Amino acid sequence: MSSRSAVLAIINPLSGTTSVAQKALLQDAFMRRAEALDYAPEAIFTTHPGHATELAADAVKRGVNRVLAIGGDGTINETAQALRRSATALGIVPIGSGNGLARHLGVPLAPLKAIERALTGRPVVIDSGEINEHPFFCTAGLGFEAYVAHAFARQPIRGLPTYVRTAFNAFMGYKPSVFLLDGQEQKLFSLTFANAGQFGNNAWMAPTANIADGRLEQCEIRPFPTQAAGMLTWRLFNKTLNQSSYWRGKSVTKATVEADGPILIHADGEPLTLAAGQVNVRVLPGSLLVLL
Question: What are the φ/ψ torsions at residue 115 (nearest 5 degrees)?
Answer without folding.
Answer: -60, -45
